[in-house]
Amino acid sequence: MPLYPSSCDMAARAMPSHLLAPPPAPSKPTCKVQQDSVKMELENGSLWKQFCSVGTEMIITKKGRRMFPQLRVKLSGLNPGLRYILLLDVVPVDTSRYRFQGDTWQVVGGAEARLPDRVFIHPDSPATGAHWQSRSISFHRAKLTNNTLDTQGYIILHSLHRYQPRVHVIEARDVLRWGGGQHSFIFPETQFLTVTAYQNNKITELKIQSNPFAKGFREDGMNSKRQRDVRQKRKLNEPLDIVSCDPCDSTELLSQSSSSSPSDLQSLALASLPSLPPLPESVCGYGSNETHFQESPVPEQQQALDLVGQTFIASQMADITANIPADITNGLQDASGNKVTDGMMDRSITMSLSPYNETYPATPLGSSSFAPAPHPQSSSSYRSDPSIPQPSPTSINYPSMVTSDYPSILSSSPTLPSSTTSPLLQQTSFTYPTLSLSTSSFPKPLLSSTSFHSIPPSDPQQGLLSPHTPTNTYFPSLPPPCCQPIQQNGVTTHSMLTPPNQALQAVPISNQTPPPLSVFNPTAYPYPNLPLSNVNQTTPPSLFNLSIYQPSSCSAIPSASVPSFQPSASSHIPPFSLTNHSLPPTTCPQNQTTTPSSYPPIAPTEIGSFSQFNPGAPYLPEMDPRSSFPIPLRHMYRQHQHGHTHPQGSYMDMSGRAVF
DNA sequence: TCCTCTTACACTTTTGAACAGC
DNA sequence: AGCTGTTCAAAAGTGTAAGAGG
After folding, report:
1. A85 CA, C13 C1': Å apart
2. Which chain C nucleotides are covered by protein, judged by CB under 7 A?
3. Coil, strand, or helix at residue A606?
4. Average pLDDT over residues A99-117
5. Which of residues 608-647 of A touch strand C (CB under 7 A)?
6. Rg of chain A's alpha carbons, rounded to an integer?
7. Where does the chain cross the membrane (predicted)?
8. Dist. CA A267–CA A205, nearest whole Å
9. CB–CB of A550/A543 below 8 Å?
10. Which terminus of chain A has a lower count of CB atoms within 10 Å, N or C?
11. Contact residues for A454 (Cβ-Cβ < 8 A; gap 6+)
12. Using the CA of A203, which nucleotide's C1' is the nearest one?
């Protein structure tokens, strides 16, 4: 089956795949997808902005915690026929550690050593552009943890640090060979601080009001403070006075209410407040204010399309699937140990946001810079407030972070394109998981420090992880008062005050540039046939150094003696290991020879694949482990159709290993 | 003593298996 | 036999509060 849509197929087939570096220009206009036409909107942007205005906090736990609000995006501009992989990663915004003091977050020191980067692979991946564009894409299954020894593959973060999620869109073919079509997006309003317990009561209130799982903690919920007090009192008094503690006695509740604590009253007050000022959206061009929280039924047409798309995927998966050990292929499990069988359907939840109109003067991101306005759907825009200290460009002082020797699949470096050297190409050693202190030739930040979404670039001139003492104590990289598209090195980024008529869905970190994607088949997909100098000049930042490796079942990879990863221009990179769940265990492709010296040290058993239930794929029944009989197709189909079965998503660690 | 983190808890939502009916 | 809809228990996802640990 073709790797390209039929209309482009001939061009693609015209030459051996290993010579497709970069891929041939589409022969027909219909094939052409403008790189910069890919757009991403944050669907629940208004919710994010509410949190952002207060200072978003994300709980991280050892067992992993989901993010709330969840990242829900809408994609457009993709080639409907091409397959794409969507990834989520989270990178530090700065090199500071924070503490919540006096109702504000303050920098209290330098960041802890950077943790291994991990990437959440959207469970629908790979899927066609049509698939991605036909629905909202939610990363709600991604989990954050503070467990540095986490084996589930969750995204590991430090507590009390500030992070920025990123979404990456990659053409699946890029996984196999050099080509264009990588897109990375950040939404500044999705920055958050990690905590193990909420620090800001306003965030707690907002979470409780917004998150369905926390419904019980709402004023009218069974787990509200009032109710908990009632329960506690009943517990204490039960042996003595049962009658007065009747939970059904409304007078009891009222009396409890009247004597509620100040914080309780505050909660009530908060809940009764008018809505949060409608956050400025239109001016920023942050897409529509649409809040598609409600799940909408998939039209039949769409289902048919899905079927076609998934068939396409399945067939192509067979094409690109590398050998996966049977135990992996058949035993894919999600992080919870459940079998991954289904593509994730978007299961939006209806967010009933309670009015929230309090102004939080000391909020990190300059909440007061949001003009009050009706919530939440009205258009709004970011407005700079002169009274709010804005980060001075010079106040953002980013110590260098490891990069060149830090083998991330997505270059964890939040830096932006380099005009010098592709970090991928710089990687000369594989130091995972130890941070390398090498600061050599780290790409310079693309964006000026005035960009509100500036992410800590690494500056070779500065010390690594040195204590950060910004002059701007609160959130050093606040949105600047002026937000204009920033063009540099051919990459356009946007800032907050993009003219209203300018569609600004996300901050594209990189596009239009040859990806530093590094997923190669040792022989079939050698490193792009580009002169290194060219690469250096054109390679964007180390945004995406994706390295996905072949399972060792493909023989020749001596797992025990895997040498350092040396992604030099001549390096051979193992092929991407993708498989479809309904595919039988694969065998080593004939054209795959291995070059052990190019393989990173991966434990073969950790190499996995991600899959999805694919009703359109050739049906190879999943085997019931108990009965050894195939699980009825109808069951799988129904689960898919009803969205009852959801893969938990997959994760990759920094070396590109998929973690299940 | 303070700060941070962990854990148990009670609640809500989600998931998926079983079942009945067509 | 296959499909649809309902029910229900288990699992998973929430914030809270108490307590541990540095």
Report:
1. 27
2. 2-4, 11-18
3. helix
4. 87
5. 632-634, 637-638, 641
6. 25
7. none
8. 7
9. no
10. N
11. A396, A445, A447, A448, A477
12. C15
Is the Cβ–Cβ distance between A139 and A62 less than 8 Å?
Answer: no
Nearest alpha-carbon partner for A426 in A414, A435, A415, A438: A438
Nucleotide nearest residue A204, measured CA to C1': C15
Cβ of A625 near strand B (under 7 Å)? The reply is: no
Q: Are A78 and A129 in contact (CB under 8 A)?
A: yes
The closest of A53, A42, A43, A68 to A373, measured between CA atoms, is A53
Pairwise CA distance, residues A649 & A142, whole Å: 7
- DSSP label of A35: G
Among A233, A236, A214, residue whose Cα is nearest residue A223: A214
Measured CA A292 to C1' C3 distance, in angstroms: 30
Given a contact cutoff of 8 angstroms between Cβ atoms, the answer to whether A106 and A98 are in contact is: yes
Question: Which strand B bases fall within 7 angstroms of a protein CB?
Answer: 3-7, 10-17
Lookup: tokens for A485: 């598209």
Strand B contacted by A643 CB (< 7 A)? yes
Nearest Cα to A294, choosing from A401, A227, A212? A212
Distance A609 CA to C21 C1' (A): 40
Closest nucleotide over all strands to A101 (CA to C1'): B3
Unique residue bearing structure tokens 């600004």:
A504
Query: What is the residue type of A44?
Result: N
Q: Which residue has the higher pLDDT, A659 or A527?
A: A659
Amino acid at A163: Y
Q: Which of helix, strand or coil describes residue A91?
A: strand
Alpha carbon distances (Å) from A93 to A353, A454, A478: 28, 8, 11
**Tally of CB atoms within 10 A around A649:** 24
Stated as kind and residue range, the H or E segment containing A39 is: strand A39-42
pLDDT tens by residue, A394-436: 222 333 232 222 223 333 333 323 332 232 222 222 222 222 2
Per-residue pLDDT of A275-333, as tens digits, reads: 323 223 322 322 233 333 233 323 333 333 333 333 333 333 333 233 333 333 333 33
Q: Considering the entire predicted model, what is its pTM?
A: 0.49
- The answer to whether residues A164 and A172 touch, using CB atoms and an 8 Å cutoff, is no
Interior angle at CA A404, CA A403 and CA A410, nearest 5: 60
